[in-house]
Amino acid sequence: MAEVSVAADDEAALPPGAPSTDLLSLHESIAGVLATQGDWRRAYHHLKSAFDLARAGSLRDTLTSSYNRRYLDQWLHGPSVERRGPAGMAIALVDLDLFKEVNDTFGHLVGDRVLREVADLLQQGLPSEGFCARYGGEEFALVLPDVDHAHAVRIADTARIRVAHHPWARIRPGLSVTISVGLAHENRAEVVEPERQLRHADSLLYMAKRAGRNKVAYHDKDSSRTIPRSMNSADSPGA
Description:
six-stranded mixed beta sheet, GGDEF_dom, 44% helix, 6 strands, Nucleotide_cyclase, alpha+beta
């Protein structure tokens, strides 16, 4: 039996930017061909690459391509104290305001597109070690390591403004989208369990909702605050 040549060993058979599912299938196919030729070392290499791609895919949300709840849980229950950095760490829970009305008015396909675009907007401007994860439904979590309290508030409010100012009407006339954010910051010296910090962010998120939505709620020293503080507040990135 003639030996089969594997021309796609370096993934050159796929166009740039090919989906990871295609890369996974390619690695599996190459591994099968190499195994039939007795080249077990290279077959193992491609099987390992397929496994790594499958694992990476299992940590991504299929709709928005942001990280999923599984990745968030793994990160928070890992050595997160060491990852906080000297300035501490913030967790922000983000919820799309009145998202059910978006689905009811414009349909679920538009709702899905809104979720994808909000995820993209939330991932902009994060610190190098920060990330966005879909927490569930229309909720997202922002994990912001090594940021002080003031910086965390700026990141959260800039994200709020970015979403509110996004040209949603280009998707459908009359469409507008805002988010509410609950932001919980802990100093490095405050070793807080991840569940407690998440619960804190969740309670602040509900505070932002009760204050009228399209707000960021956070603790400032001994009190809780929201921004903007009134519906007439200046609402621009420089405000």
